[in-house]
Structures are given as C-alpha cells and as structure tokens.
C-alpha cells in the first residue's frame, strides 16, 4: 500500500527527504481494530512536532486525522462493520493515517457526519476530541452552563480553537472571546461564533478593557502559552481555570497559588494511549459531534484543501503549519 513517512527526524520541511512516498505491507487488524481504507486526512501541529523531534529506526507514518471506509474488522469488534464510513484521530504510538490503509481501535472512532464530504469531515476528529475534552472534561463546564462567565481562547483561529469556539458558543452560556492577529483570522474566529475577538500581539488586558472586561473565569491557551502566561495569571479571576494543550518549556505553578487558580492539561491521546476505562468516550463524543454537524449546530473547520495525499503536498501542509499562519484545518484527499 502507498504511504508517506519520514526516516530522519529534524530535517527542514523544504528538504525533499523530510517526508517521502513509500510502499508498505497491508496491516492486519487486532481484536478491537478496524482496518480503514483512508480517503481524506488533515494535518495537525503534532505531525510537525513528531517529524522534527522524534527519532525513528525505520520509516514512520504520521497523521492523526482521517476519514475512510471500514475495510476489515478484528474478532472482537462490535461497534462497526465493513463498509461503514468513519472518522477518527487514532493514537500517537501506532502508524498514522498518511497511508492507504490504517488500523485504529474502534473505541476511538465515530461515524462520519453524513452532511459533510470526506475532506470537510477529515478536518474535525483530533480537534473536536481535544476541544470537547478540554471544555467539558478538564475545565468541567457543564453543557448549558457558564452563565455570567467568560472564556478567553488564545489562538482561536487554529484547528482546536475553531471548534472550541463553536462548542462553547452553541453548547454553553459562556461569553466567548477569541484571539487572532490578522484581519482574515479575526473574521474566521467571528465566523466560528466568538462574541468578541482581540489581537494577541497586543497586551491582552488592553483588548479586554476595550470590551469593558477586567477579568475572565476561564482561559483556553492553545498556543504560545509561555509567552502569555504572566498575562493569563493576571487576567484570571480568583479561583479561575487555565486549560492548555501546547508545550511550554517551563511554567511557574507557584504563580497560581495566590488566586487559587487551577491548571488543566488536555491531551486527546491520553485515553487511547493508556487504554483507560473510559476510552470509548471518544467514540461517543465523535458520534455526538457528528449529530451536531448533521443538525446544523456545528460546521466544519476546513481552512484549506491541499489536493491529493502525497509527500509533496504534505510537505507544503507542514510548512504552512510551521509558519503559524494557518487558519482552520489543512486537508488532503484521495490517492
């Protein structure tokens, strides 16, 4: 089968060897596995981080977003059958979705939203799981809750921010404020449903002050947390919450003590990586997101379509993500 992989970590993305086209054997499903014929994939910052930093002894296939058709199932599979259209994000310790066929545990897979084509659906799984878990599981904001409270989303124009803004606006009563730095990304965040948008290149307190807001109860910091951390601590109300998903080099947790602030890490890989008792929750929430898409409550976060799935197009996608100028999700489709 065709696949795209890297063989040497750390190569700059403009090097033709950073990602290469290869051939691999067709994988065979384990007991709880689906083998999915991949039709479309999306690219996430984790793809670029792994390619740059994680050494590999052989070709490593990246990719943590996919839409496809179930081709074969393991002996203990009960949630899907061959022929089902599915979407999912997989797990970081198995071969990824940048291949014609991929194995994935059924408990991390949802039915593809019927209303969306393959490319539009591929934009959603990893970021939808991340945003849902961050909002409802980590920050523990109840659906329909948050009346009189404010959520500040730093980096709201990216993949996670785009769906997090939608979830918070449509499923809670929070006032949702996103940050974005360019006119086109600010327009995008408004289109996703934010009540207000401020520029994170300027002091956050100034942007909030122009809205008549002096403090917020919740912050979702999705990028450059280390650069904004001091401001975040100052802006959070006493007993407020900070949720983050990126990789700051170091955080001074003692800065949170005076206000009794809480810190919450979100990684959507945790449940499938550790095979937690509630691992199937990701199957359930992906199905819920599909229902919300099909009923018109949520929309795809597809930002750009980069064409067919091959090494050259994936290198272009990685380059755009590394420039930090992407809005929404970058999707590739077909072989």
Secondary structure elements and their pairing?
Layout: E1 2-6, E2 20-23, E3 33-43, H1 45-53, E4 60-61, E5 66-73, E6 85-88, E7 101-105, E8 109-111, H2 118-122, H3 125-138, E9 150-154, H4 159-171, E10 175-179, H5 183-192, E11 196-198, H6 204-209, E12 216-221, H7 225-235, E13 236-244, E14 262-265, H8 270-274, H9 281-294, E15 302-305, H10 311-322, E16 329-333
Parallel strand pairs: 9-10, 9-12, 10-11, 12-13, 13-14, 15-16
Antiparallel strand pairs: 1-2, 1-4, 3-5, 3-7, 3-16, 5-6, 6-8
Helix pairs in contact: 3-4, 3-9
Please give the share of residues in helix. 25-40%
Classify the oligomer.
Answer: single chain
Run of helices and strands:
EEEHEEEEEHHEHEHEHEHEEHHEHE
Strand content: 15-25%
The biggest sheet amounts to: 7 strands, mixed
Silhouette: globular
Key words describing this protein structure:
seven-stranded mixed beta sheet; globular; 335 residues; 10 helices; alpha/beta
What's this entry about, in short?
The protein is α/β, with parallel strands linked by helices and 335 residues long. It has helices spanning 45-53, 118-122, 125-138, 159-171, 183-192, 204-209, 225-235, 270-274, 281-294, 311-322, and strands at residues 2-6, 20-23, 33-43, 60-61, 66-73, 85-88, 101-105, 109-111, 150-154, 175-179, 196-198, 216-221, 236-244, 262-265, 302-305, 329-333.
């Amino acid at each position: 089968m065709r696949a795209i992989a890297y063989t040497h970590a750390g190569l700059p993305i403009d090097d033709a060897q950073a990602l290469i086209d290869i051939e691999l054997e067709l994988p065979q499903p384990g007991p709880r596995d689906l083998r999915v014929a991949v039709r479309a994939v999306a690219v996430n910052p984790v793809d670029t981080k792994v390619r740059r930093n994680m050494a590999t002894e052989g070709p490593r296939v990246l990719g943590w977003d996919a839409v496809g058709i179930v081709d074969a199932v393991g002996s203990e599979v009960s949630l899907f059958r061959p022929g089902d259209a599915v979407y999912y994000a997989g797990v970081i310790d198995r071969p990824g979705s940048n291949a014609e066929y991929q194995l994935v545990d059924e408990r991390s897979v949802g039915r593809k939203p019927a209303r969306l084509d393959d490319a539009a659906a591929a934009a959603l799984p990893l970021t939808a799981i991340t945003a849902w878990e961050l909002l409802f599981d980590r920050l523990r904001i109840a659906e329909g809750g948050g009346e009189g409270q404010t959520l500040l989303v730093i980096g709201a124009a990216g993949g996670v921010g785009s769906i997090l803004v939608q979830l918070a606006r449509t499923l809670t009563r929070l006032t949702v404020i996103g940050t974005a730095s360019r006119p086109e990304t600010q327009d995008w965040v408004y289109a996703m449903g934010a009540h207000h948008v401020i520029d994170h290149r300027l002091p956050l307190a100034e942007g909030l002050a122009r809205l008549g807001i002096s403090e917020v109860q919740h912050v979702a910091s999705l990028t450059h947390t280390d650069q904004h951390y001091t401001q975040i601590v100052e802006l959070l109300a006493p007993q407020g919450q900070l949720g983050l998903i990126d990789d700051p080099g170091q955080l001074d947790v003692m800065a949170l003590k005076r206000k009794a602030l809480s810190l919450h890490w979100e990684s959507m890989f945790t449940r499938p990586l550790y095979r937690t008792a509630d691992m199937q929750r990701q199957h359930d929430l992906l199905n819920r997101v599909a229902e919300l898409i099909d009923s018109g409550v949520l929309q795809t976060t597809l930002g750009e379509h980069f064409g067919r799935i091959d090494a050259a197009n994936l290198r272009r996608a990685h380059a755009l993500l590394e420039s930090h100028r992407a809005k929404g999700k970058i999707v590739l489709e077909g072989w």
